[in-house]
Amino acid sequence: MKKFTNKGKIRVLHISATTTGGVGYNLLMLARYIPKTGFELSFAVPADSHFYNQLLKEGVNVYPLKISRTPFRVKNLFVFFRLYKIMRKEKYDIVHTHTSVGGFIGRIAAKMNTIPLVLWTIHGWSFDYPYGSSMRRRFFWVLEKFLDRFTDHYVAISDNMQDVGIKAKITSGMKVTLIYHGIEVERLLNQGIMFRQGAGRDFPVIGTVGRLEPQKAIDDFLKAVKIIQDQVPQARFVVVGDGPLRRDLERLSISLDIQDIVTFTGWKENVAEYIAGMDIFCLPSLWEGFGIVLLEAMAMGKPVVATRVGGIPEIIVEGKGGVLVSPGKPEEMAGSLCLLLSDTQIQKHMGGYNEERVKTIFHVKDMIKRYGILYENLLKQ
Fold first, then answer.
1. Taking the model in full, what pTM does it have?
2. Which residue blocks in 168-217 are alpha helix, DSSP H?
3. First vs last Cα of the chain: how many Å apart?
4. Which of 28, 177, 195, 360 is most buried, judged by most C-beta within 10 A?
5. What average pLDDT score do residues 190-202 get?
6. What are the extents of the domains in the chain?
7. CB atoms within 10 A of CB 68
8. What gap in Å lies between CA 118 and CA 95, rounded to an integer?
9. What is the b/e burial string over 339-353, where b = at least 16 CB atoms within 10 angstroms of the residue's CB?
10. CA 265 – CA 140 distance, rounded (Å)
């Protein structure tokens, strides 16, 4: 077994092309909870979200990157050389990469530096996204197949992500370990209880959270709202998040004549407080590697209506914690939401089930323990 470079600590560099969404949350949890006695973590990430500032507050070493999420941009060549120099100087035991571009640049730079262990977390496969031409998908399949030779091991955030890679013959199951995302269950649970104790209203609220981009299919959510409006006119709806489609979605709400019952909050750092104020949480995504926001809703005892895509069926147990619907089918989504709105006992039962499930399976302490064991075992090998 190699000697570690910092008084017995395993030194890990995480590289990502984004610090937003589930990727950013996952990195923050690693920075916050992995034992400092056994590990020293550094991060090379863009300064593009509040998670970046949170990483700085955790006291870890953070290298800001000016990286593009489009692979073959000139700026990414400079990022490659910067990462190469950082690795050559710091001599990490592990380089752990995230996102397509972060994985592309980081894995090659790490192998050129003969880093002992190089990993990539499968947050999603570019060739598997349901958009773009067949030629584009083929190109990204070839690229991932090429990058497999630069990858010692993969971390899959869901069985679905693992299965996609194996069925596409990118890699073998021997090189993949499943580690679900974990969240700070107690903090979110307490936040939800405090909010509900102070809430006082007599109308139901259905909400969703996410970046306003095509993947999240907020337009389908708004179309479902229009259908629900006729059946449950007292219901109110909230969209938490921001993104390139915000103006288009606001215009859509006006054209559907639902602007008076739908609130667009914009980006909020205190997302948990908004989820706590919802009676039902909805996630209408067209594709989703995992859907970490579902865990937050579950921790606060919310029943869920979500699309049956990616890793979502591994999180939400259909019929017990919520209802799963087909993607791109707002009428089906509306029917399921109306069903839950009509029975508060079902809502309460599903919310309670979700609360217990997230404590048992998706706790941050379990996630951190699995990462620690994985790092140590792979280095021994």
1. 0.91
2. 185-198
3. 8
4. 28
5. 57
6. 10-182+363-380, 185-361
7. 15
8. 5
9. ebbeeeeebeebbeb
10. 35
Does position 3 have pLDDT exceeding 50, yes or no? no
Can you say how many angstroms the Cα of residue 154 is from the centroid of all Cα atoms in its chain?
17
Structure tokens, 5 = 């470079």
284-296 burial by CB neighbour count: b if 16+ within 10 A, else e? bbbbbbbbbbbbb
Q: Give the helix ranges, DSSP H, for the chain.
A: 21-33, 50-57, 74-90, 100-112, 134-147, 159-167, 185-198, 218-231, 246-255, 271-276, 292-299, 312-315, 330-341, 344-361, 364-380
Tokens 């990157």: give the residue.
Answer: 65
> In this predicted model, what pLDDT tens digit does every residue of 62-113 receive, in sequence order?
999 999 988 788 999 999 999 999 999 999 999 999 999 999 999 999 999 9
Cβ partners under 8 Å of residue 136, min gap 6 = none
The average confidence (pLDDT) of the chain is 93
**CATH code reported for the domain at 10-182+363-380:** 3.40.50.2000
DSSP string over 335-375: HHHHHHHT-HHHHHHHHHHHHHHHHHHSBHHHHHHHHHHHH
Q: Looking at the DSSP assignment, which residues form a beta bridge with residue 359?
A: none
Residues 10-38: tens digit of each pLDDT: 999 999 999 888 999 999 999 999 999 99
Strand 236-240, strand 205-209: pairing: parallel
Domains 10-182+363-380 and 185-361 share a fold: yes
Each residue's pLDDT tens digit, 205-233: 999 999 999 999 999 999 999 999 999 99
